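Regression report. Comparing outputs from two consecutive submissions.

Submission 1:
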Amino acid sequence: MGFVRPSPPPFDMEEWRAKPYLSRLKANAQDWAVSGFGTADAVLLLYAVKVVVFAVGGFLLISASTPGLGGLFDIGDWWTEPIVFQKLAVWTLVWEILGLGSGSLPLTLRFLPPIGGFLYWLRPGTVRLPPWPDRVPLSRGSRRTLVDVALYAGVLGAGAFLLLSGGAATAATDPGRLDPIAIGVLLAILALLGPRDKVSFLAARPEVYGFLLIVSLFPGENHLAGSQLVFACIWWGAAASKLNRHFTYSTSVMISNAPWYPSRVKAGLWKRYPDDLRPSRSAELAAYFGTAVEFLLPLVLLLSSGRTLGTLALIGMLIFHVYITVSFPAGVPLEWNVFMLFGLVFLFGQHGDVPLSAVDPPLLVVIAVIGVLVPIVGNLRPDKVSFLLAMRYYAGNWATSLWLFRKETRAEEKLDRRVSKVAALPEAQLTRLYGREMAEYLVEKVLAFRAMQSHGRALNGLLARAVEDVEDYKVIDGEFISGVVTGWNFGEGHFHHSQLLEAVQEQCEFEEGELRVVMLESQPAHLRRQRYGIYDAAAGLVEEGWVSVAEMVKRNPWLEESWRFPVEVTRPSERRAAPAAVE
C-alpha cells in the first residue's frame, strides 16, 4: 500500500472488468485474503490521530470542567475519581452520536465528508427510520422534522451540560459525582429520540454508555460494582453470540485486513489459499480461544476481588482490547475499545476490591433486564432487536442486504440525484479522490469482504433469484446505502432493509425492475437457517424464504462460480427470476 493511495489491483483491470460478477468476486476475495482492503497508510494514521484526539480531548475537558480535579498533567492524582468514569461515559456517548466514532472515516467508505452524524441529523427533511411507526403515536413518516432535530440537539445539549458541570459533593474534599437529575434528563431525551429515529439513537451506543449512566443513578458503591457487572454483561453477551458457525468466517476476514500481519500469516487463515477460502483449523482455534478468554477472564475479574489472580485476568483483558484496537476491525469502534481499556483499569484495577454484594436488589434487576434478558431476546428474535442491543458485536451473524441498481436506466444516479443524503454514494466519492477505475475496483472489493463472511455466500447466491441477469445491475452493499442515506452505518442491517427501501422509493419513484434488494435476516439462536426476502422498490416483496446455514459455510465466497444455491421458498415470485437457481 502507499501512504496516500490504496494498494492497486493485483490484476489487469481490463481483463477483470470483462469477467462475469462471480469471477470478479473471486479475484477480489483472493486478493483480500492476504492483502485486506489495501488501505493507504495515511488512513490508518488518521484513525490513530482521531483516537488520540478523543482520549486527550476527553481528559482535558474533564479536568478543566470539574472542580476538585487537577490539571491534565496531574491525571495520576485524579483519574480514580468516580466522576471521571461517569464523564468519560458521557463524553464517549456524545462523541459517538456526533458521528465521530464508530462508522466514520475511510474504512467505512466515508471520504467526502468523512463523517455523517450531526451533519445530517440536525437537518430537517433528511431520512429518519422510526422503529415502531405503526405502534408509537406520532412517529410515522420517513422525513426528519423540527421535533427530531430538537430531540437530537437536546441529547447533545444535555451531554454538554453534564461534561461542563461540577459534581454533586459526596464528601467534604472529593469532586463528587454527576448530578443524578442531569443524568436522568439526558437519558429521558435519548429515550424520546429512540422512537423517532432508531439510527441516531443506536449511534449513541445506549447498550454501553446509556446502560452505565442508568447504573450511575444508584447511590453508594452500587455505581462501581454495578458497572463491573455491566462490563461483564457486554463481554459475556458478545462471547455467547459467537458460539455459531459464522464467527470464524468473520474473524478470518477481519484479521486478514489487519495492517501488521504479514501475507504468509494471512494465507494460513484459510484452508487452502487461494483455492479454498474457508477458515483453516488454526483460524478456528484462534477464534474460539478469544471467545474462551471473553468468557473466563471476566468471571475471574468479578470473583477475585482485585487479588493477584484478578490482576492477571485484568492484564489478559487489556491485551484482548488492545489487540482488537490495533487490528482496525470493521466499523472501526476504536473509541469503544479505548473506553473499555480505561474502564478495565478503573473498575477492576483501582476499584477491583469493591464487592459484588454492594449491588442492591433493585439495581440487580435493572442489570438483569438490560444486560441479560434483552440479549437473550435479541438472539432468539434478531428480527425484533438490534444486534447492538443484543450485544452481538463480532459474531458474524448480522442482518445484511445487497442493493441492485439497473445499469440501463441509470438507477444508481437517480438515487444519487433525488434522495436527501449526507454525501454522494461511495463510488462517486472515491472517483473524486482516485479516479473511476480505482473507485470501481474498491467498491467491488467491499463486496468481496461481504462475500467472505458466511452470510455473504447466501446474499450472493440469492442475487440470481432477484434479477434475470446480474450483469445488468450494479450491486452495492446495503451498509453503504445506509451510510449516505441515514447518516450512519455500523453493521446494523435493519437500517437498510425494507423500511429504508420504502423511504428511498418515496423520493425516487423507481420503475419496477430498476431497483431490487436482497435482504437477509440474522440467524436465530435456536434455528439453523436464516430468513431472506427479495424486494422490488416499486412492486414490494417479490419472494421470501429460508436459507440453510450449512449451505452457506460449505461454499467459497465466489460460490464456485455457479448461481446454483438451494433455498426454501415460502412465498414464491409470480415469475421465476432465475431458472438456474435450485430450490
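Submission 2:
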Amino acid sequence: MEENKNLTPEETVVETEIPETIEKKSKFNMRLVKKGSYSVAVTAIVLVLIIALNFLINTIGEKVSLEFDMTKDKISTLSENNKKYLENLDEQVFITVCAEEKGYRDGMMDSYAEASNIYGGTDYYKQTITLIEKYADASDKINVEFVDTQDSAFAAVTAKYPDESIVYGDIIVSAGERYQKLGFSDIYEVEYNEEYANYGYTMYNVTGNNLETELTGAIRYAITGKTVSFALLTGHSKKDYTEDYAVMLEKNNYTVENIDSAFVNSISKDYDVAVIAAPTVDFTPEEITALSKFLENGGEYGKGLIYFADATVPVLPNLTEFLARWGIGISEGILFETNENNHMPEMPTAMGLFPDEDDEITENMNIFCTGCNVPMKVIETEDEGVSAISLIATTETVVNAPLGTSDSWTGASDYETDSFSGLIQSVKTKDEKSSYVFAFSSAEFIASQWAQYPSFSNMNIALAVSERAGAVDDSASFVTKTITNESFAGDVTEASAGVVRMIFVFLIPVITLVLGIYIYIKRRNA
C-alpha cells in the first residue's frame, strides 16, 4: 500500500494506533467469551452430574441398600448378639453352599424354586448370599465354600454325606464329625397363594428369610452337639398360646415336647426348661411342689421356668404364691395406658414397653408391644438366695384397671398412674449352677399380631430368655430374624419425599443454572 504523504503527523499517529486498539479489544472480548463459555460449561457439567446422581440413586438404590444395609430393620446385617457369638468361636466351622455364588444370586435359585411353584424370592436369595459372606467376615473360624452341583467337585460333597439327599441351594454346616444340613424350607418362609388358588393354580410365595437363626443354630450344634429340651405345660390353659413360640424354638435346635396333662405330678430332669403359657386353671399344691423340685434339680439347680401371664383371667392363688417366693409379685387387673402416644390406636390396653434394667439380654432391643398385661412388679422374698430384677417395664403413665376393662374404658383418671414390669428375671444359684424363673406380663409376647411385627422385639426377647433359662454353656444369645423385604421407604411420607424431590431435582439445578448465568453476565460486563 502506498504511503499517504498529505496526512499530518498527528493523523499518521492515529492511523497507526487504530489497528493496535482493535486488536486489544478483540483479545479482551475473546477472554470474556472464554470465561463465559467456561462458566456455561461448568454449569452444564454440574447439571449433568446432578442428573446422573439422581439416576444412580434410582437404579442402584436396592444394591446399596443390600450391601451397605440402609434398611430400617437392618435386614442384611447380623445381629450384635450373633456377631459376639461368632467372634468367640474357638473351633473351625465349614459352611458349604451347594451352588455357584453368582448363579445363586442372579437367578439359578429362582429357577429351582419356580420348578416347585415358589415365586417372589429373588431379593431373599440375594440376602442369603450377603449374610453368608458376613458370617465369614465376622470370624476367621468360619470357612465358606461354594460348590456348584454341576461341578465335578460336587462329587466330593455327596461322598462325604452319603446319607443325605443334597440338592441345589442346600447349605451344610460342619465342625469335626458333626454336621447339619439346611434345605430350602429351613431357610425360607413360604406361604400359599390363595388368590391364585381361586383360578385353579398351585402357587407359593417366599415371604421371609430365616438364614441367621438357622445358620447360627447349625453352627452351635456342629460345635457342641448339644440340644436344650423344653417342656410346654399346656394342660392348665384353655388355649395353646405356644405354637409360634415352639416353632421358633425348634428352628433354634431346641427340642420341644407338649405336655397337655391336666395334672403334672413331676417334671422329668431330662427337660431343661418348663414353660407355662396363660393358664386359666390354678396349679394344685402337689403340682407346685413338682415345679419347685424341677427347679431345684435334686439340689444342684440349673433348670429354668418361663411363665407367660394373661390378664383376662383372675389371679391363680397357688401359682401366684409360688411366683412370689421367687420375687415376682402379680396382682389382679389389666394394665391400661393413659398416654395415647404409647399405645396402639384406640387400643389403650395394647401398649409399648421398654428395656428396664441394663442387662445384655435386652441389648439392641428397643420396644416391645403387648396387650392383656397383668400388673406385675419385683417384690421382696424371704428366700435370701433368690435375686429378682425387672428387665422390661411400661412407662409411668399406666394404671392398673379392673379385671375385664375394655379399650373404651373412661375411668382411668380415677386411678394413680405407675410403672409396671413386663418381664421379671429371678435367679437362684448353687455351686455355680443357676436356676432361672422368668415371668412375662402377657402371653401376647409370643402369641399375637404384635409378636410378628419386625419393628417390635417380642420374639427376640422370648428367644433370649429361652437361651438364658436353658443355661446353655456357650451362652449363645442370638435372636431370631425373619428378614422381610422392607426398606426405609416405609418411613418416608409423601410430603417428605416431595421436599427431597424439590430440593435435588428442581431447586439445586435451578440455583446452579441461575448462578452460572449470573457469573457469565458479571464477567461479560466486566
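Expected: both submissions complete independently.
Actual: both completed, but the second showed a warning that disappeared on reload.
Relevant detail on submission 2: The chain has three domains: 9-70+491-524, 80-211, 227-333+371-393+421-469.
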